[in-house]
Amino acid sequence: MEEKPLRVNENSDVTIPIRNLIAIIVATAFIVMGYFDLTSRIALLEREQAVTQSDIELNSEFRIRWPRGELGSLPDDAEQNIRLSFIEKKIAQMDEAIETMKDKQREQ
Questions:
Q1: Residue 7 per-residue DSSP state
Q2: 67 and 48 share a domain?
Q3: 98 and 82 together in one domain
Q4: Domain of residue 46, residue span
Q5: 99 and 61 share one domain
Q6: Which of 29, 32, 65, 77 allows an S-S link to 70, with CB 3.0 to 4.6 Å?
Q7: Which residues, 6+ apart, have CB-to-CB distance to 62 below 8 Å?
Q8: Are 62 and 71 in contact (CB under 8 A)?
């Protein structure tokens, strides 16, 4: 039997069982859905990473600048500082009073 060369043109017929055609279509649909799901997941992860990196940079800046007082202070901090100053003055007055009392006892 002599083999004829395969010639393909616009009038060539291809026969494929319908079951195989449906399987090819379904497989292609799953591959396309998987591709888009994967690309959207990658985009979401990249966005989350960018947001996290931004938060880390802001936190580092805050961590360095807040103790230096470069970012201001809270009203509660100001009130606390006023109270501490008042207590320091009272302790200094009490120390002076104690010293005065000791001096008076030594004189007697």
A1: -
A2: yes
A3: yes
A4: 16-72
A5: no
A6: 65
A7: 71
A8: yes
